[in-house]
């Protein structure tokens, strides 16, 4: 018998994080905006009921915001990331291992807990998460990840499950799969969904009953494995070790368009500094850096230009100063005067663990620079991001993203911790 897997999913996660420290947001419509306060990326149940859709631009919602008293917040990723850590800490006693799937979803390996009432076990876990963080959750339990995702969706949408759906029971599983649209099955993309619909396969149950050879013919081995998972045959277990990253990126839109090269370099320097910090936190080095920037693609009546240039990092490195120098070389090759740039970014590719990087014949001793990077990370970790920065970032930073409605850093900045007066 397969080891049961659970998927715990935080409901309306970004909104729930905002509500954790602001009681005035409870029971009222709330939306959280994307980077640069562009569009809605999270909505409370009350906001969804008003018809606000994911990705709706905020400038299209102004009248609705005023009419219905909708509370609007800028995204606060420092808060959301720290709250994720607290959610996982609350879940740890209830599972052998866990795998973070996204910022609001975590797979749990329930090996060793099979003899318990897993529905009651999951309710106890939900109660502990809510007690520790105030964040509401739903849990799906099954033999495979695909079924656990389906169970979680059922737990969230079907009131009879009361927030926990266990699909290990065959009759319950069949009942749920009979009404679950094939397009909503985890791993079924738009093109595959259309192919399946043309074949008369409209539900998860019909997909489960699809012949394996036909599944491979329609969607390669990926769809074949998915069908197997819907039948309760796991294709991959919970991964306690994070898969090796092949690349990473730091990109942002600007609060104000940039027409000056040194201002652009201020932004790219900050992104390269952050990219180096991320590399070091994962114990990685990069072989290639790409810098890119472009104008506003949504305003075709204005002059348009976008470019990217790649620079080889030799030797491979995670030194932020080396990355900033590489970003400047790339940006100088791509820059053109006379345009108003609205977004830029840094991408790193061909990542390797630092102790596996190839050595060069005339490589310099990097001990001093390594200590400098460690000190830089320690200062910014203790006193807040961008406490210590390079001069190339500048001081005014007119290019900073708009975040006019961002909540305080309730849990990561000692100066912004809530104060209770009695």
UniProtKB/TrEMBL annotation:
Per the UniProt entry, the signal peptide is none
Q: Name one GO molecular function term.
A: damaged DNA binding
This entry's Enzyme Commission designation comes to 2.7.7.7
Q: What is the uppermost EC class here?
A: transferase
An example GO BP is: error-prone translesion synthesis
**CDD domains, alphabetically?**
PolY_Pol_V_umuC (cd01700)
Q: What does this protein do?
A: Poorly processive, error-prone DNA polymerase involved in untargeted mutagenesis. Copies undamaged DNA at stalled replication forks, which arise in vivo from mismatched or misaligned primer ends. These misaligned primers can be extended by PolIV. Exhibits no 3'-5' exonuclease (proofreading) activity. May be involved in translesional synthesis, in conjunction with the beta clamp from PolIII.
Name the protein family: Belongs to the DNA polymerase type-Y family.
| Oligomer and partners | Monomer.
Q: What is this protein called?
A: DNA-directed DNA polymerase
